[in-house]
Write a structure and sequence with these properties.
The complex is a heterodimer of chains A (about 350) and B (about 425).
Chain A (H helix, E strand, L loop, with lengths): L26 H15 L13 E6 L5 H12 L3 E6 L11 H9 L5 E6 L4 H8 L5 E7 L5 H15 L6 E5 L6 H12 L4 E5 L15 E3 L2 H5 L4 E4 L15 H8 L3 H4 L7 E3 L12 H4 L6 H21 L9 E4 L5 E4 L2
Parallel strand pairs in A: 1-2, 1-3, 3-4, 5-6, 5-8, 6-7, 8-9
Antiparallel strand pairs in A: 10-11
Helix pairs in contact in A: 1-5, 1-11, 2-11, 5-6, 5-11
Chain B lengths: L1 E5 L2 E4 L4 E4 L2 E4 L2 E5 L10 E4 L4 E4 L1 E3 L15 H10 L2 E6 L10 H14 L3 E7 L12 H7 L3 E3 L8 H14 L3 E4 L11 E2 L2 H6 L3 E2 L2 H17 L3 E4 L4 H12 L4 E6 L26 H12 L5 E3 L7 H4 L16 H12 L3 H6 L3 H7 L14 E11 L18 E11 L2 E5 L1
Parallel strand pairs in B: 1-6, 2-7, 8-9, 9-10, 10-11, 11-12, 12-15, 13-14, 15-16, 16-17
Antiparallel strand pairs in B: 1-4, 2-3, 4-5, 7-18, 18-19, 19-20
Helix pairs in contact in B: 2-3, 6-7, 7-8
The chains are: A alpha/beta (about 350), B alpha/beta (about 425).
């Protein structure tokens, strides 16, 4: 299949063929997804027949309940057949290579793979090796990207704030390990958000994060001043082991979102969290359940976003016939690889 | 056997020769350069018109994968790759399985290589038993068996005391020690340069301080012990600066870079191209430019291929899981020429970094064309393009970030000991 060499998620017509990352996607595609999602939010009927007869494989190489469930619900509302595979518990432990797993599943006539993997880049790898008619959706890979989460966050912001052009957005917490934060930053810059702030201790920030288009703050009180949107990130408890943080208590004291810190933001600021939350670690219960929290609407919108992505991918012209797959060699010339 | 190499442009950096001169070989040795000896009648005349005749290449790091990793490559396949790349002498690191830590293993490797009658193999012995960084190997015995230097490959020392003692012991006998400057803890789980590409792609970074912290330890211990140390495969601007200063202060150190690092940067990872997963990692453009400058001013003594043939099964994986390394023996010459052309380096200087300079690091009699010495010669067509693709590579490893690229410079003849071992 002839994928676009400058962005392997697009086909030669510039249409979305896979959703692997929000980086490098044109704003029109993001708006198209957000608009399509909006049309699904209003729908009262439980099922629409857009994906009838399509087989969607949820390939979860890393355990997840919430994301997998929302993808499953989204696919079922579109009338697709959903097959859930928790591969962490089957092939990986039997040492089957990822390539073999993908080849086998491709042979089962899948139309779409929804992939969650602990390695950054695994969905790119799979997308490079699947048959040309199969679409790959990244449901979270390592620290790299979680594009549907980023999109549902954008949907939520747009729902409450209407427009990105005047917004000041803060992303708080463990950015170093966060695929969610990376997708949020790419989406915000693409959609025209003028000011993105990242707030974290130096140990939880990746190198050169400012090159992604974010302003760095280490003092949460300064960083939250006059923001319109606060996006909290989940803090994994294992971060205490790698000498990145001394304790959850100290993190909460300096980087946990409490009512008094939130008071520094604009009075109508909204609070997002990708879940699952660690109450009392990165966010106080009174904020999580407070009137500025939009954490539960995020979950609802998440289903609409996933329906939108699946229906757009299924509707793309795709490609006809099985041609040789193409990958760029980083020097501009295309390299043909056998599958 | 008498061979007359006729009409080529002879470039012999060590002897300061760059002129159209013929080479005359008798019984494995160069007998004359320029004019033939009296009564010379050649058995074979090699027409080198339009070609460059230079000393056979000397490669400071070529993994032959034996013993232990024969599924990735064999001595046969990689020695074929060496001569196809014009490489007539190569040093192989001890990171085999088992590592080269016993004289028997070294003797076996040398014996197997000698029987192939191709390039000359110079094993680098393990500095510690099993490369575990805990107990010293029998260095003197290993040297008797043929080891030219001692190294920890990419394995760390258990602690700095072992490191300190290893250098002192090696210095006792004057054995060179080859070290990679990378602090194992600072590089832990890292797979790419700790820069904006790793940040974007969500890959664990290897910070530059992993190199500079290790390098400062090395330099201090060299000062303390007087050991002769060669720093293998520098990757950063800061690292190059430290070596430059240390050399100015007269420390007995030399260093090399891998040819990939003279060309590529972190950007070449693109969308998780596992062929660009290398050790050390490809760093920023600023680092690449600084390494090129360090080559130009002699801070970096030599360029090596860092030849690492990797099996498809362990390369065709998500980036971080893929085995690092790239095949390199057949790319060393054309990529060195490419660097010379792009940096406007003089050809004799460029060729010195892959012939006479690495020979000086190895302290071997190679890398020059002098009457009375062995005729190890590379004859190449500097204008001929060829495409890097699996079918064009003799090495069993087809893994290289340059796959698909057209490169200029094709080896036409390789001679070892006055025998034509490769021709194209």
């Amino acid at each position: 299949m002839w994928l676009n060499p400058s962005n392997p998620q697009l086909n030669r017509e510039g249409e979305l063929h896979h959703l692997l990352s929000l980086e490098g996607l044109p704003a029109e595609i993001l708006w198209q997804i957000l608009d399509t999602a909006k049309s699904f939010v209003g729908v009262k009927v439980k099922k629409v027949p857009l994906l009838r007869g399509k087989a969607i494989f949820n390939l979860f190489f890393e355990p997840s309940t919430r994301t997998r469930t929302t993808f499953e619900i989204a696919a079922k509302r579109l009338s697709a057949d959903v097959i859930n595979l928790n591969i962490s518990a089957s092939s990986s432990t039997k040492c089957e290579s990822l390539l073999d797993t993908v080849d086998n599943l491709s042979a089962m006539h899948a139309d779409m793979f929804v992939v969650r993997h602990s390695e950054s880049g695994a969905p790119h790898f799979i997308a490079r090796h699947v048959a040309p008619e199969i679409h790959v959706i990244n449901a979270g890979d390592g620290r790299h990207a979680h594009p549907t989460q980023g999109l549902l966050d954008m949907y939520t912001i747009r729902h409450y704030k209407k427009d990105f052009s005047g917004l000041r957005v803060a992303i708080v917490g463990d950015l170093l390990h966060s695929r969610v934060a990376r997708s949020q930053i790419h989406a915000l810059t693409t959609l025209g958000c003028p000011e993105i702030r990242v707030i974290a201790p130096k140990t939880l920030l990746p190198a050169h994060v400012e090159q992604l288009g974010a302003h760095v703050y280490h003092d949460m009180r300064q960083g939250l001043k006059d923001v319109d949107v606060v996006m909290m990130l989940r803090l994994q408890s294992e971060r205490m082991q790698g000498a990145l943080l001394p304790s959850a208590q100290e993190f909460y004291k300096y980087y946990g979102l409490t009512e008094d810190k939130l008071a520094l933001a604009k009075p109508d600021a909204i609070v997002l969290h990708p879940g699952p939350m660690n109450r009392g670690v990165e966010i106080d219960s009174s904020v999580a359940d407070g009137k500025q929290s939009v954490i539960l609407p995020q979950v609802t919108f998440g289903i609409a976003i996933r329906m939108a992505v699946m229906s757009i991918l299924a509707g793309s012209r795709g490609v006809s016939g099985r041609e040789s797959r193409v990958k760029t060699d980083n020097h501009g010339s295309p390299v043909t690889r056998d599958s | 056997m008498k061979i007359h190499i006729k009409g080529g442009r002879l470039i012999d950096p060590k002897n300061g020769v760059d002129a159209k001169k013929d080479v005359y070989i008798t019984a494995g040795r160069i007998v004359a350069i320029g004019d033939p000896p009296n009564g010379y009648v050649a058995n074979r005349v090699i027409d080198a018109a339009g070609l460059i005749v230079c000393p056979g290449l000397v490669d400071l790091a070529a993994r032959l994968r034996e013993p232990g990793f024969e599924y990735m490559a064999t001595l046969e396949s990689e020695m074929e790759a060496a001569i196809a790349g014009g490489v007539t002498s190569l040093a192989c690191p001890p990171d085999t399985d088992p590592p080269l830590d016993e004289p028997g293993l070294v003797e076996m490797l040398k014996f197997r290589a000698q029987n192939l009658n191709q390039a000359r193999v110079y094993p680098v012995g393990a500095l510690t038993q099993g490369l575990k960084g805990e107990r010293l190997t029998e260095m003197a015995e290993l040297a008797d068996a043929g080891c030219v230097a001692f190294s920890q490959a990419d394995a760390p020392f258990a602690d700095n005391q072992v490191f300190f003692h290893a250098l002192k012991y090696a210095a006792t006998f004057g054995f060179p020690v080859w070290l990679r400057a990378q602090d194992a803890a600072l590089a832990r789980q890292g797979v790419a340069h700790d820069g904006h590409v790793a940040t974007r792609l969500g890959l664990q970074g290897i910070p530059i301080c992993a190199e500079t912290v290790a390098l400062s330890t090395i330099l201090i211990l060299v000062r303390e012990t007087g050991a002769r140390v060669h720093v293998a495969r520098l990757s950063s601007a800061e690292g190059a600066d430290m070596v430059r200063q240390a050399k100015r202060q007269g420390l007995p150190i030399t260093c090399d870079i891998a040819i990939h690092h003279a060309h590529l940067t972190e950007m070449d990872i693109g969308y998780f191209d596992s062929n660009s997963h290398l050790t050390p990692p490809l760093r920023s453009q600023r680092d690449r430019d600084a390494l090129r400058a360090a080559l130009a001013d002699g801070t970096v003594d030599a360029i090596c291929s860092d030849h690492t043939p990797v099996d498809e099964d362990v390369k065709q994986l998500p980036f971080a899981q893929a085995e690092p390394g790239a095949t390199g023996l057949e790319l060393l010459l054309p990529l060195t020429l490419k660097w010379a052309e792009e940096s406007k380096a003089r050809l004799p200087h460029a060729l010195a970094t892959i012939t006479s300079e690495p020979a000086r690091v190895l302290k071997i009699d190679a890398g020059h064309l002098t009457p009375g010495h062995a005729a190890d010669i590379c004859i190449f067509d500097p204008e001929r393009y060829w495409k890097v693709e699996a079918g064009a590579l003799r090495s069993q490893g087809k893994n290289t970030p340059f796959l698909g690229l057209e490169l200029k410079g094709r080896v036409r003849y390789t001679l070892v000991d006055g025998q034509v071992v490769y021709e194209f």
